[in-house]
Give the backbone structure.
Amino acid sequence: MKSLGSIRRSFSPWTDPAAKPYIVFENVTKKFGDFTAVNNLSLTIYEREFFALLGASGCGKSTLLRMLAGFDEPTSGRILLDGQDMRGIPPYRRPVNMMFQSYALFPHMSVEQNIAFGLKQEGMPKADIDKRVADMLKLVKLEQFAKRKPHQLSGGQRQRVALARSVAKRPKVLLLDEPLGALDKKLREETQFELMDLQQNLGLTFVVVTHDQEEAMTMADRIAILDKGQVMQVATPAEVYEAPVSRFVAGFVGNVNMLEGTVAERSEKTATIKGASGAEIRVENAGDATAGSTVAFAIRPEKIKVSSKKPDGAANVMEGEIYDLAYLGDMTVYHVRLADGQVVKASALNSSRITEDPLSWNDKAWISFAPDAGVVLTR
Amino acid sequence: MAETTLATTPSASQEAVPQQGTWLAALTGRLVIIIPYAWLLILFLVPFLIVFKISLSQTAIAMPPYSPTFDLAGGISGLWESFREFSFDNYLWLTEDPLYFNAYVSSVVIAAISTFFALLIGFPIAYGMARAPATVRPLLLMLVILPFWTSFLIRVYAWIGILKPEGLLNQFLIWTGLIDQPLIILNTHSAIFIGIVYSYLPFMVLPLYSALEKMDYSLIEAAQDLGCPPISAFWKITFPLAMPGIVAGCLLVFIPATGEFVIPDLLGGSQTLMIGKTLWNEFFSNRDWPVSSAVAVILLLMLVVPMMFFQQAQAKAQEQGR
């Protein structure tokens, strides 16, 4: 059997221009009265992809999911599923199933009745239903809870019933609305990997809505970051983290230092950014930033090195003092106040038990980073 | 031995203090439970026993119009003499005259049909209210309760004005040209159904509303998502989940409707046979208190016994479900 990792690495239909998109949102707008939930949004999702819609509450991500399920119709634009226009097709005739945030388990039915519900609607023969329900119960490891009612289950068990019920019909697409939102942290982490395995084993297309960036980063092949009903960036988790396209995306995913300035010099690849206090940053991969334009240099805390002595040979070095520090066990986060008053976050992995260069509050410190450690953002 | 005595004595005295506290708490706890029981005892059980006692008595031209009456002057032997006069003759009489049996049956049938129509009309109202925006719901609730602000009797009288041959309804239908002869509704069973459904509709709507309002609408969406068209989703999800409300509403309409006296008297005319009216006639026209008491006792048993079985079944189902 192929390992999960190897399948994942070879899966990238979005880089293949010949690949046929499976779900297409084409200039979709959805208005509720005066409020525009989704604003002229276009998006393509490929077959067997694990796709995450990430955004703060009210960004329109749930509306997108509900339009795909058929509970809401777009005000304008089209949604195509496997080439077919979905307009006017009611939810009960769409080849998609949804796992609800509240789970929406039928309280008057047992676990197996809940799972069998969709299959009965299909008119599947009873023997086949029984077999499929047994398979599903095994898949989510709830065999001994088949006769229980939803309220006799724990939160985690209910989540699994909801999952089993939504995949029982083998839909082309499974929509998951905050699937792990109601679980505690430890259970959530375990379940993330279970969901990924399930998606791989069943070969389904998953579209998951979440506000938890860690969840999206862990599970998804690609992430769409949404804000105010528009797509800010669609990319793999690594691209979203290392190459955000805008200040919003850089700030939304993970921790980031945003150093504002203007482009003082620009060559083909490199650029020099001058901050308000006159400090200069030399960067590579300056992208489309033109000389004289106002930009932000976004750099992740773990890419900044903190030391008590001025490091030799680093491209960018700044002096400051330790303003605050937090020891988290696996790493230490330093807040370094620079000469111009700006506070920069830097994190250092505690790879040995005793640090060779101990730093404490109010110590003089130097921060340094490579010219390609961050990205230059014009938006 | 001496040592053990010494050791136990202080601990025993220590226990005595909290015991006093729990005793007091137990008493207040009991008192709280006693209040509803006392209420039921004084306002339900005692009157019922008085009525039951009268039903075992014989009519008499006296004041009160039955014998025996308890006379404490005769002492214990006098009371014993009174007890020996009790008999179930009145209950036997109820089985001998088919009038009573017919009145019971007709009451139950009329109440059942009215309950069915109240459910049929009440369900969409309650459903609409439960699905209305949360800001409008208090207003809608208020509108359902509003008729209670007018006297029940006046509202039933008002229906005479609407239903009579030259009444508002017939005038309206003739004006629209739908009919050319007035419909005879007043003094028929239809008028009784209309009266009962109208009067008891709030009792149907309120429990239904409270059951439907609690229901999570995403359950309907989940059912549709799993391939269930809306009408089928109603029968498979909404209806079973509304069942406690349906049962409560139906009982709240059926029970008073069975014993209803005013509506059949005012709207149903002289031919209607309902047990409430029969009871009234026995009591006030015939002045036969014992027989009317027997009628009342049977009516009560008829309603209470099935309800007790039903509640037991309900509790058992809930125990299994919960």
Observations:
- Chain A is about 25% helix and 35% strand.
- Confidence is low (pLDDT under 50) at residues 1-7 of chain A.
- The longest helix of chain A spans residues 185-202.
- The CA atoms of residues 102 and 282 of chain A lie 50 Å apart.
